[in-house]
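Hey, I was hoping to borrow your eyes for a little while. I'm sending you its amino acid sequence along with the C-alpha cells. Take your time with it, there's no hurry, and the full record follows here.
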Amino acid sequence: MRSIWAVPLAAALAASLTSAPTFTALAHAMDDLGTLGGPSSYATDINGSDQVVGLSAVNPAGDVVHAFLYADGVMIDLGTLGGTLSAAAAINDAGQVAGDSDTAADERHAFLYSAGVMTDLGTLGGTSSNALAMNQAGDVVGYSRTAGDAAQHAFLYSAGVMTDLGTLGGTGATALGLNDSGQVVGNATVPGDSAAHAFLYDHGVMTDLGTLGGSNSVATGINATGRVTGGSDIAGNADTHAFIYSGGVMTDLGTLGGMQSLEAGINASGDVAGTSGTAHSGQHAFFYSGGVMTDLGTLGGTFSIAQAVNDAGQVVGFSDIGGGIRHPFAYVGGAMRDLGTLGGTYAAARAVNAAGHVVGESYRADSELHAFIELAPETATTSTTMTTTTMVTTTTSTPSPCAPAPAAGCRVSQGSSSLQIQDDATDTKDRFKWIWGKGPAIDVNDFGNPSTGSGSYRICVYDASGRGQPLMDMSVPTGGTCGGGACWKTTWKAGGAIGFHYRNDAATPAGVIAMKLRAGVAGRGRVEAKGKGTNLPIPALGLASPVTVQFNVGSGSICWQTTYTTAIRNTASEFSAKGP
C-alpha cells in the first residue's frame, strides 16, 4: 500500500552539478487503466491484490469526477453520496475503500466503500468531513467540522462510530495516519492556537510529541510497532526536518546537505522515504535506514521526489529526466529505475504495494492523463551513467507561446469559475481576473515549483471569432525577485506545501500581478490570476462565445481550463462571465 500520508516537496533546483548518479531503464509493463468515460484518471493507492483506487472523469468534458476501484481489469465507478463529485484516497487488502464525496445537500462527507456499498461516515456535527487514511480493519481517520462549523477536529471512524479525537488544548486537529492497532497520528493546535504539534492518539489519550526545537510539527505516518514519522520546525524555525519518534524521543533525520527534509512514508522496519534539500540547493529523494540518509539520485535530470515506500524498502516517486520532463521511478536494489510513460512526456508514481507494483498517472500521446499500474519495476535491462555539467545563470523560466487553439486534455472547471476583462480608456486601469475552481484533484507537484524557477506558466484566452488566436497570451515567469523579495512563495498548511502565491506589482512582462495556485482533492483545488495596467494584452472586446481560458504549465501538457458559453457583460469595454 502507499504511505499513509505523503507530504511531497515540489521539486526543482537552479544549481551546478558535475555528475548525476547511475539510473536504469526498464523493460517495463505499464498498463493504462483507462477512465470512466472522461479524458482523465488518477490513481491514489494500491493494495496487495493489485486493486487500485483513485478518481476519474466520467463525462467527455472532464468536469465531473467519481471515485473508482480498478479490479480484475475493470474500472468500477463507485458513485457518490448523492452529489456530483467523489474521490478515493485509500484501499486496504480487504478491498475496502475510503474517500470523500459530495452529498445531495452539497456537503462534502467522508465515505467507506465496502462490499459494493458506499457508506456516509457523517461528521462531528458540522457540514463536512474528509477521509485521509485507512487501516486493514477498515478504520478510517481524517478531519471533520464540529457543530456550527466552529472548528476542525481529527476523527477516528471505527465499528460504525465517528469519534472526536479532541485537540492538544487548541481548537483544531487533523488525523493523517493510523496503524492496524488503531493508533492515530496527525497534528493539533496547542492552547491559544499559537502553534500546531504532532500527536499520537492511543486508546483515548492524545499525546503531544513536541518538536525539534521549533514552533510546529506534524506526524504523518505510523507503523505497526508504533514508530512515527513526520516533519518539524527546527530551532529558530529556520527550516523543517523529517523526524522519527520512537520510545518517547523525536530524532531529527537531518538532510542531504541542504536546509529542508520532508518525509513521504514509513515502512514496517521503521525505514523512512522522503525528499531533502542537497548541498547544491537542489532536492533529491532519500531513503533513511539504520541511522543513515541515502541520496537516491535522479533519472539524469535535476530533481527527484519520493512519494511512497513499501516494506521491502522499495521507494517510488518521480524525477526530472532532463529538459523539464518528469518520469516515474522505482528505486530497487540500489538503482533508480525509469518506469517510462504511457506515451506522453510526464508521469508520476504515487503508491507501491508489497510486491513492488506501482501506480500513478501518465500523459498519453493524445494528451489525455490516465492512471497506470506498473507490474514489473524490478526487471532491469540496460544501465546508463549520465554525466552532465549544468550552469543555471537565471532564476526565471519563460514558457512557450500559447498555441493557436486551446490545448486538449486540460482539467476542466465545473463551477466556481469566473472571468473579467476590462478595457479602460486609460490603459493603466485595464484589468484581467480569472478564477478556476471545482474541478479534478490537483497535486501540488503538478504546478512544479515556481519559487525555485521550476516550471513555466502561461495564461491563454480564446474566443470563437475568426480573429487570430489566442486573443490574450500572458506569460508568468517563475523564480525571480519582485520588490526586493521572492516573486513566488510557497503556501503551507499542516502536513506540508499546498500551493504557491505570486506577487509582482511591476506587472511584467504581460500584466499579471498576482496568482494563487492551490492543490486539493476533487472540487477543492483552485487557480487564480489577476492582471492590470498597460502591459496587459487586452484585445478588442465584444467577444464571440464560447470564450476559453487556459492556464498552462510548460508546453501545456498540464493545464487548467474554463469555457464560458454565456456572458454576464459583453461590451466594447468589458467582458465578464461565470461558469461554465
Q: What stands out?
A: The first strand starts at residue 23 and ends at 26. The mean pLDDT is 87.
